[in-house]
Specification:
Among the domains are: 273 residues, Alpha/Beta hydrolase fold, catalytic domain (Rossmann fold, 3-Layer(aba) Sandwich); 172 residues, Galactose-binding domain-like (Jelly Rolls). The chain has 16 helices and 24 strands. The strands form four sheets. It has a twelve-stranded mixed beta sheet, with helices on both faces. Strands 14, 15, 17, 20, 21 and 23 form a six-stranded antiparallel beta sheet that branches. A four-stranded antiparallel beta sheet has the order 16-22-18-19, with no helix packed on it. A hairpin with a 2-residue loop joins strand 8 and strand 9. Helix 5 packs across helix 6 and helix 7 packs across helix 14. The N terminus is likely disordered. This is Xaa-Pro dipeptidyl-peptidase C-terminal domain-containing protein. Pfam families: Peptidase_S15, PepX_C. InterPro entries: AB_hydrolase_fold (IPR029058), CocE/Ser_esterase (IPR005674), Galactose-bd-like_sf (IPR008979), Xaa-Pro-like_dom (IPR000383), Xaa-Pro_dipept_C (IPR013736). Keywords: Hydrolase, Signal.
């Protein structure tokens, strides 16, 4: 068995000096990190030989082919890091937990973070927290094409990456050390690949756990044809991640795959930057191939998801559609948190910090789920299918989500606004797809440089990155017109009557507009208390349709209106948020507007254990309007459940 050789200190300094974007963007062969002789973990490396190997485990490195060529026509070889219990024979069959994604490079998840090679530590919390090695599970991490030790061009959850996921599951199920049953696990991008796996239903896939995924890839870059800054930042961020080089201790095979940038040199990154910018509508073939919610139709793979309703990163858009299309067993933790894992602490640097989701027992429930579907072990705890935290921080159990609700369609009436919204930063360059290679390289280099510092938008475009504090409402916005009904300003507002009894807004609201004028619209929902304090509880935007009839969904939600509260709906130009609008400067007349809502009683809630997620208070503070809203004496519509 080859021995692990530590890298001298000078190599750590060399790593820190490597410019990541330059290491892979539009050059034929990224520079490698100079250092020691290659390491060959084909026969297994223990923790005693490499401190990055988890306790009680042995690390193997293997390769296999993807059946679909790269978008530049080259064959794709996929790299896997295999973590097995150290105290069992190499060929003993075990259930397999698999994660497939872009964050498993030996050098680091999103940048060069390590001083010597070894398996990614991204899910050591699962390996250690769930005692996977003691339980007799194998954990496998497979690099998507273009990332880590896999060759080919990155493909942003497209047909190539979908083929990689299917190949990875089938490969893992077919190994001599596998019992043929595979469960997928991930958070963020590697939760997206879990949804892909559930959709494709490859042989051997028995269960999927997907934490905070993107349910439809279009929504991460656009909202109903309005570009988000991620339209530019996300491709740049993943170009940078894909350019992370191999270590000198890595095999030549690993380093060659890590160095691949396409044919001609840099083609992978150029294509990855150009295609999302060229395809602005969900109706294009590019985005239809990445509409995971639509592709879930008929899937029967058991699925366990988490989703923060007030997420600032991977938002609850199309979750309702995905779950409705998915036909298999479903479990979920849904609540008022940000982009976190089920076991995360609110402050990861403070061991005494409360849990970010507010509920204990994540790994207990995870392993109950896997034991049932990968080993046929009956659960010893009767967990509710869905555990949901409401906007008061209270937990309840529920068999389905959104569950039994009354759907109402309320008329909001008309109004006028001026479409003069201001973008968040400079608008994206619409000619980007036609730039010369040199211009594109310079633009991507600039974005990636900003991302490396942790201060720029390239890092913000990485699905894994999120700030602990929500951005909130801009307090310096021009308040022309304010939220006053029917006046030409940046928006107008329509209010409900104060609710007479507690009512929950659940599911996915939808807005139907009949308008005259162009171009953008923002719709927001507000919880207005009797003293006028208003908290923004939902929002989405769209480019108005040319025929004047526009319909779109808002985000999925869970929010309780208490007795005396009113619901306010503001309609207007884009004054805030994560978008890059192109304002028309025109007056838009809303001739009619209807809002579809799902209302739910709270009286039959079945309480579950759990605490208030700390992020909820930060969200409320950030999204409370700086001036009170004053509803009219009588609202335009009423929200009530039958008999209420």
């Amino acid at each position: 068995m080859p021995m692990y050789r530590s890298a001298p200190r000078r190599f750590a300094a060399a790593i820190a000096a490597v410019p990541l974007a330059a290491a892979g963007l539009f050059v034929a062969s990224p520079p490698q990190i100079a250092g020691a002789d290659p390491l060959d973990p084909a026969d297994g490396i223990t923790r005693a030989e490499n401190p990055r190997v988890p306790e009680g485990a042995v690390w193997y490195e293997q390769y296999f082919d993807s059946p679909v060529a790269s978008n530049d026509g080259s064959p794709v070889e996929l790299h896997a890091d295999v973590i097995r219990p150290a105290d069992i024979p190499a060929d003993q069959q075990t259930p397999v937990i698999l994660s497939v994604g872009p964050y498993f490079a030996h050098a680091g998840q999103t940048s060069v973070e390590q001083s010597a090679t070894g398996p990614s530590e991204r899910f050591n919390d699962l390996i250690e927290g769930a005692d996977l090695m003691d339980r007799g599970y194998t954990f496998v991490m497979v690099d998507l094409r273009g990332f880590g030790g896999s060759s080919g061009c990155l493909d942003w959850a497209g047909p190539g990456e979908q083929a990689d996921v299917k190949a990875a599951v089938e490969w893992a199920a077919d190994q001599e050390w596998s019992n043929g049953k595979v469960g997928m696990y991930g958070k963020s991008y590697d939760a997206v690949t879990g949804l892909i796996g559930a959709n494709l239903q490859p042989d051997g896939l028995e269960a999927v756990i997907a934490q905070e995924p993107v349910w439809n890839m279009y929504n991460y870059l656009y909202s109903n044809n309005v570009p988000r800054p991620n339209q530019i930042y996300t491709p740049s961020a993943y170009n940078s991640i894909a350019s992370i080089p191999g270590f000198p201790e890595d095999s030549q095979r690993y380093r060659d795959n890590a160095a691949y940038t396409g044919t001609p040199a840099g083609a992978c990154y150029e294509t990855n930057s150009r295609e999302p910018a060229e395809n602005t509508s969900l109706d294009t073939a590019y985005w239809q191939a990445r509409d995971l919610a639509a592709q879930a139709q008929g899937s029967t793979v058991p699925l366990f998801v988490t989703q923060g309703f007030i997420e600032t990163n991977t938002k609850p858009e199309d979750m309702d559609t995905y779950l409705a299309n998915h036909a298999g067993p479903q479990r979920g933790w849904l609540g008022q948190w940000n982009h976190v894992r089920g076991n995360d602490l609110d402050d990861p640097d403070d061991p005494n910090s409360p849990l970010a989701m507010g509920r204990e027992g994540w790994f207990d429930e995870v392993m109950s789920f896997y034991d049932e579907y990968l080993q046929g072990v009956e659960p010893t705890v009767d967990y509710p299918n869905f555990l949901i935290q409401d906007s008061d921080g209270n937990w309840r159990g529920q068999e389905t989500w959104p569950g039994k609700a009354r759907t109402v369609s309320v008329s909001l009436g008309g109004g006028r606004y001026l479409d003069d919204g201001v973008a968040q930063g400079p608008a994206p360059d619409r000619t980007q797809a036609d730039r010369t290679q040199a211009d594109q390289r310079q633009a991507d280099q600039k974005q990636a440089d900003r991302g490396r510092s942790g201060e720029g938008a390239a890092r913000e475009g990485d699905m894994e990155y999120v700030e602990r504090t929500p951005p909130g409402l801009r307090k310096d916005r021009d308040k022309r017109g304010g939220p006053r009904h029917g006046e030409v300003g940046q928006n107008y507002a329509t209010f409900s009557d104060p609710v007479r009894r507690e009512v929950r807004l659940t599911g996915t609201p939808a807005i139907n507009l009949k308008t005259k004028g162009e171009r953008n619209v923002m719709v927001r929902l507000w919880d207005v208390s009797p003293d006028g304090t208003a908290v923004m509880i939902n929002e989405n935007v769209a480019v108005l349709e040319a025929d004047g009839r526009t319909r779109f969904d808002l985000k999925s939600m869970e929010w309780t209106l208490h007795r005396g509260d009113s619901l306010a709906v503001t309609i207007g130009t884009l004054t805030d948020g994560y978008w890059w609008p192109e304002p028309s400067g025109q007056q838009v007349t809303v001739q009619s507007a209807k809002l579809d809502l799902a209302l739910q009683s709270t009286t039959d809630d079945v309480a579950a254990e759990g605490e208030r997620a700390p992020f909820l208070d930060r969200y409320i503070a950030a999204y409370t309007a700086d001036e009170p809203m004053t509803p009219p004496a009588k609202g335009r519509f009423r929200l009530a459940l039958p008999g209420k």
